[in-house]
Amino acid sequence: MASESRHEVPEDREPLSRARIVEAALEIIDEEGVDGLSMRRIAARLGVQAMSLYNHVQSKADILDGVTEYITTEMRMPRRMTGDWEDGVRSIAYGFRQAALRHPRAGELVLMRQLSTPTALAPVDTMLAMMLEHGFGEAAAVHALRLFVSFQVGSLLQEFRVPQASAEWDKEAAEQARAAYFAGSGFPAVAKVAPILAVNDHEAEFAFGVELLIDALRRLAPAAG
After folding, report:
1. Average pLDDT over residues 100-117
2. Three-class SS state of 12
3. Of 28, 73, 94, 186, whose CB has the highest number of CB atoms within 10 Å?
4. What are phi and psi of 58, to 5 degrees?
């Protein structure tokens, strides 16, 4: 009887599964970052023994892959985009950004982890299909995809690595201090644009970059040829 009871699942506890493990891991990452994640921490969060996790996942790396897939699904991209390609590019770009920003401490994990699962490839296929259906050449579609991926990774990594503001943090005072530092740096060009350089609006910078890239792609669009 004792050996049987060890394998029984209490009536008020949901059975352990890969999905529950991934969700618990994401909760820990959201609270403490990727460095705070361990198999023991996940097991404790779920109220089970660490070894029982291996009945559903292969390793910590497998769990991290699951976390990246989970966040990717939050993009909720359709398999095929409707409308013109410019609006489609905007939808994909902002959808990816919003999904990553919902879990900022896990966002860098998504950006840097190389996946080849159907979940990870779905948004890639969406953008490639959209470009091809609007008459872009195959090489141009791939170049456009890689260009936007590079832009997304760079801009989001910069945003994620900015220290989180505390309740006592005075944004205006910090910007004024940076502007004063740049103005007195001794570098003429830096000093000239000091008030602008001191303000870092990530959303505005992202919008500027997306529109600049779309403008560049117009030269490759079939109508321009």
Report:
1. 75
2. coil
3. 28
4. -85, -35
DSSP secondary structure of 79-124: SS--S-HHHHHHHHHHHHHHHHHTSHHHHHHHHH----SHHHHHHH
Interatomic CA distance for residues 115 and 40, integer angstroms: 25
Mean local confidence (pLDDT), 20-38: 91
In terms of pTM, does the model score above 0.85?
A: no
Name residues whose C-beta falls within 8 Å of residue 127's C-beta, 6 or more positions apart in sequence. 88, 89, 92, 141, 144, 145, 148
Tokens of 48: 């089970």
User: Do 123 and 92 contact (CB within 8 A), yes or no?
Assistant: yes
More confident site: 193 or 2: 193
pLDDT at residue 50, rounded to an integer: 92
CB of 88 closer than 8 Å to CB of 81: yes
Query: Do residues 69 and 106 touch, judged by C-beta distance below 8 A?
Result: no
